[in-house]
């Protein structure tokens, strides 16, 4: 049972960590090389695509999605999708994908004359699953060495773990005051019942032995 308990705990917190890692905003310093629009037919990976743009026809199975091609400071390529999140999850309430695409197109540059920008996004990039992080905001910076401090993530995670700690402390106190005594009483009752059964069995065996000796 101990292994099952730890497996459940690891699975639970692993799921929480994955959701937070996917949902919380991240920042990349990149150079935008191109922007384009592509017709997408979400399939098995549809969970990683946002809903239709607000005001568009949500009954059609496919839709056009904006993409932003970039190159990171280390030379690696990163491609972002640019979709509205609307009023759904994650709660970015993004409704300006068209404006963001125009800003990205205006910030394009070449390797010879780079213009560095910061892309705030959420999500993961997986070539195997064909999923892309969703760009939320873009702004220009003076240097590729700019340092972005994730204040929102720091504050959110601090508050989150403070709440988890407070709930755990209250649960531990409740368990020690209410749950553990009940369990101990049940265990004492089971032990007492076992002793009584054993005593009755001993008496029964003595009674049988007395009849055998007659």
What layout of secondary structure does this protein have?
Blueprint: H1 2-23, E1 26-40, E2 63-72, E3 77-82, H2 97-106, E4 116-122, E5 134-140, H3 151-213
Organism: Ruegeria atlantica
Transmembrane segments: 148-168
InterPro entries: Phage_phiNM3_A0EWY4 (IPR011088)
Structure description:
This protein is α+β, with helices and mostly antiparallel strands. Helix content is about 45%, strand content about 20%. It has 2 domains: about 25-150, OB fold (Dihydrolipoamide Acetyltransferase, E2P) (Beta Barrel); about 150-214. Strand 2 and strand 3 form a beta hairpin.
H/E element order = HEEEHEEH
Give average pLDDT, whole number: 85
Strands across the major sheet, in which order? 3-2-1-4-5
Largest sheet composition: 5 strands, antiparallel
Give me the Rg, rounded: 30 Å
Remind me, CATH topology of the largest domain?
A: OB fold (Dihydrolipoamide Acetyltransferase, E2P)
Structural class: alpha+beta
CATH-scheme architecture of the largest domain: Beta Barrel
CATH class of the largest domain: Mainly Beta
State the distance separating the first and last CA atoms. 51 Å
Beta-strand fraction estimate:
15-25%
Low-confidence stretches: none
Shape: elongated
């Amino acid at each position: 049972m101990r292994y099952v308990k730890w497996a459940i705990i690891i699975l639970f917190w692993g799921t929480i960590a994955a959701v937070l890692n996917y949902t919380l905003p991240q920042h990349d310093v990149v150079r935008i090389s191109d922007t384009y629009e592509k017709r997408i037919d979400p399939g098995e990976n549809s969970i990683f695509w946002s809903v239709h743009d607000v005001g568009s026809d949500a009954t059609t199975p496919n839709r056009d999605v904006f993409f932003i091609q970039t190159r990171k400071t280390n030379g690696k390529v990163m491609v972002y999708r640019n979709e509205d999140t609307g009023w759904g999850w994650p709660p970015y309430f993004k409704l300006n994908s068209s404006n963001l695409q125009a800003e990205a197109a205006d910030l394009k540059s070449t390797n010879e004359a780079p213009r560095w920008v910061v892309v705030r996004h959420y999500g993961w990039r997986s070539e195997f699953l064909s999923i892309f992080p969703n760009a939320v905001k873009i702004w220009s910076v003076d240097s590729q060495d700019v340092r972005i401090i994730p204040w929102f993530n720091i504050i959110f995670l601090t508050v989150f773990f403070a709440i988890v700690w407070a709930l755990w402390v209250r649960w531990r106190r409740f368990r020690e005051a209410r749950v553990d005594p009940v369990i101990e009483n049940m265990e004492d009752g089971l032990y007492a019942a076992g002793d009584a059964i054993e005593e009755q069995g001993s008496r029964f065996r003595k009674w049988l032995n007395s009849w055998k000796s007659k």
